[in-house]
Amino acid sequence: MAKAIRYARTGGPEVLEYVEVEVGEPGPGEARVRNHAIGLNFIDVYFRNGLYPAPLPGGLGHEAAGVVEAVGEGVLHVKPGDRVAYAARPNGAYSELRVMPADILVKLPDTIDFETGAAMMLQGLTVQYLFRQTYPLKAGDTILFHAAAGGVGLIACQWARAMGVNLIGTVGSNEKAALAKRHGAAHVINYNTEDVVQRVLEITHGAKVPVVYDSVGKDTFIRSLDCLAPRGLMVSFGNSSGAVPPFALSELVSRGSLYITRPTLATYAAKREDLEAMAADLFQMVSSGQVKIEIHQRFPLADAAQAHSALESRRTTGKTILLPCVP
């Protein structure tokens, strides 16, 4: 038996229950992993509140780091005793021990501890595909990145600085503005006291930006479009303020033949060789010190509901992790 978080209905944080579950032996293509640290991400909220449908009752969580205890038939790339990390479906990372698909596991370098491994996989791989693949950035580019003081944002600020990219970050307070600047943002806009579009125009001398990375959704969508240069790319990769409402394609025409994409990590890392390459890039950035993963909040796994409340109310910065009991 092992402890895990389960939910039987969608709703607020109160639907999360800390229960005992049976964990069996891994079948073909599976591994049993004992989690040492678990990452908290906004996508977990989307599943819990029903924005993203999932079979119920079920578990939550896409991201963790731990040790392989056993593997099933056909699993060759990891073995018992290996330190591993992962960030992908199926849900179920909020657990002390789980049986899971082995093909999403990557070996964790000895230079990276379990807490860092759990804190960086989903958000770090997200920045990897956003910056290297969705819109391949180059030194000298100027970009707009919303929620720059969040978990993804602080990684993005550092990664942009390492690439020589001028990142304009939006935040909701002066404290978060200072945090984003310390992590490498070239410019920071407090959307509660400044006009985002006007500030982007001032910073870029009227040119606007070639790409906007937006994980906020409903509250920032139109402003994001207004910040794009003609033929610019809108990258909508999250909905922390709610889903983007339906809009007319003419909105893209009137602003200069804009492009829009809605990428997901699952698509970019669907092939094993792509996942390995993306993880290697992330591990190099972290091991070299160019990107530091800062864990600002830690909660016991049993207190996952409190962690969700803090995340949704925007009381968190950087990364939040859940800590299971490890024998």
Question: Could you please describe the fold and organization of this structure?
Answer:
- The protein folds into two domains: 2-121 and 266-323, Quinone Oxidoreductase, Chain A, domain 1, CATH 3.90.180; 139-262, Rossmann fold (3-Layer(aba) Sandwich), CATH 3.40.50.
- Helix 2 (114-134) packs across helix 3 (151-163) and helix 2 crosses helix 9 (272-287).
- Helices cover 30% and strands 27% of the residues.
- It is built from ten helices and 16 strands.
- The strands form three sheets. Strands 3, 5, 6, 7, 8, 15 and 16 form a seven-stranded mixed sheet that branches. It has a six-stranded parallel sheet with strand order 11-10-9-12-13-14, sandwiched between helices.
- The mean pLDDT is 95.
- It has helices spanning 42-49, 114-134, 151-163, 174-182, 196-203, 221-226, 250-254, 265-268, 272-287, 304-312, and strands spanning 2-7, 17-21, 30-39, 58-59, 63-71, 83-87, 97-101, 106-107, 142-145, 166-171, 187-190, 209-214, 228-236, 259-261, 295-300, 319-323.
- The chain is an alpha/beta fold.
- This is Quinone oxidoreductase family protein.
- Belongs to the zinc-containing alcohol dehydrogenase family.
- Its cofactor is Zn(2+).
- Residues 11-322 form the Enoyl reductase (ER) domain.
- Keywords: Metal-binding, NADP, Oxidoreductase, Zinc.
